[in-house]
Specification:
This protein is mainly β and 305 residues long. It is built from 2 helices and 13 strands. Strands 1-2-3-4-5-8-9-13 form an 8-stranded antiparallel beta barrel.
Length: 305
Amino acid sequence: MKKSVFMIALAFGVSSAFAQDLTSKKGEPILPEAEDWAISMDADPIFRFVGNAFNGNTGNAAPGAGFLNGNNTIIGKKFIDEKSAYRVLVRLGYTSISTKAMIGDATVTTAPVYPEVPKMVEDKWSRNSTNIGIGVGKEFRRGKTRLQGYYGADVMIWISSLTDKYKYGNDLSVGTPAVTVANSTNFGTGNITSDSYGNAARITKNKSGMTFGIGVRGFVGAEYFIFPKISVGAEYGWGIGFQSTGKGKRTVESIGGTTPQVGEIETVTSGSSRFGFDTDLNQGTIFGFRGSNTGSASLRATFHF
């Protein structure tokens, strides 16, 4: 009898030693529960900060809370219960930038006399871009300890567009003095180019076709809860996607013709389409394809509340 009691006590002690307490000392649950919300962020800066703290790096900057996958994607979750959650992936972006440059007034034919300064005019380049991506999915979880595995699928759509506009302070002219494309600022964006006749030209408007994409992505990952409701983990994805870019328009102005004159030429740029399946869906990003880069797992920290 004493031997049996001893064996039962020993078994209980061994099982207790290997069991993990899933509540904190304050009684807080470690793992997510039904009705919890969660948001993920890039964990690379955190690990870089910790690693540099032990290598003698005196310029170890504090970690930042970066977006996931390098393309400004926000991932949120709403837990149905402790073993499943809905996911939302969002990128809503609109950017408007402008760059100005001063250049000599080409209509002035006399050189300035000291201490006068040359008369200048202003060239301006403006760019408007839109990037919108929305995805929904469902996540299923496994595990009864701080180490949790998960898997599921996302369905996504995305659109994007880009428009460049240029205003030049010097109007092209064939008079005296002649004002040519050379009297324009080269912004390094390809705005100084040639027209379909081979004449020097400058772009006044360049509008890309709108890109529309749709994809389905499966994912699998694992995370470890280092603190109550705070986990660090990695996620891999594989999926299939299609995106199409419509025709765009480019408007240039140049000087040409048998009898030289200033003219404006509008050309249509061809569209494109792309289909692929890869790890990850679109080779490095969640919304949209990115060259020939191979996909990789995204290291993330997730906060539940």
